[in-house]
Input
Amino acid sequence: MSRPDLNEALATPAVKARVERPLLSVVIPLFNESGSLPALHARLRAVLDTMDLAGYELVFVDDGSRDTTFAEVAALGVMDPTVRGLRFARNFGKEAAMAAGLRAAIGDVIVLMDGDLQHPPELIPEMMARWHGGAQMVTAVRGSRDTDPWLRRQLSRGFYSLFRRVSEVALAEGGGDFRLFDRAVVDAINSLPERTRFMKGITSWVGFRQETVDFEPAERAAGASAWSLLRLLRYAIDGFSAFSTLPLRVWSLIGIGMAALSGTYGLWLVLRTMVWGIDVPGYASIMVAVLFMGGIQLISLGVLGEYVGRIFTEVKARPLYLVSDRIGFQEQAR
Ligand code: UDP
Ligand code: MG
Output
């Protein structure tokens, strides 16, 4: 292969030259956020209008809200041509909404943020400055979790430290879903086929030149957090199983340990019988052994089941989400 050919073969989007004045996409998942939408839109526009951009678009993804969120997105879209909106056919979850937004965004630079104004739009220029400095992903890391309840803070700390030990990717603690991506990173993320999405893990798995900026999250502007403890727990399990197979492997280790122990014990029993003869009592030790082993086997079966379940959802290959309405997407208008 000659030099130019080789260069052409290597010219994936990641090697594309950077533009000086980029087109910026802001992607915002929304679930019952009608209360904060007008303020969010106003603050975003105020910030973006001061920036040196080729243009910008606001991509709102309504994740099956049950309030007037989408009607308000539509109303904004009538007045403001930079607004684009997608409505899901039902609530598919924030991960799906983020994935849809990243696929729909056309910008050279893409900012992903929450729609409840906990992520201040005023931080975008600072993130953009990092991008101009060469960063391909800028994660806004929250300085404190003071706005979260105590139990939730502790659980989240435990999750991160466990995840660090168990998985091959390291998650930035306190890094929420407030991020700026270069087009190359979004192309990489969009190319991942997996159905069980875990954005925190994916973003660190893809690599690229990453930087962080600090910010203080605000209180929710309106409404309530849609994340109950149970939902967070499910999310954590998804995260673990998507980025680690340790839960599977640990059972082989436990199995080896148990086999070694019971082997030794068996040897001792044989010896004892030969030296001191047969003695019948032993009900307690048999019961303990049977119950203990039964319990261990059920747990390991359960863990296996978690992974089999995940294989099942991946193999079904259902779409991540279904879109029922679009605003501002002429090319795909139906
Ligand atoms: N969200 C979503 N789908 C859901 C739940 C939440 O798109 O099923 C959005 C929500 O509208 C917000 C963001 O995800 O823009 C973060 O949600 P929330 O504020 O409830 O989470 P928290 O800040 O408590 O982690
Ligand atoms: Mg929030």
Residues 129 and 135 are 9 Å apart (CA to CA).
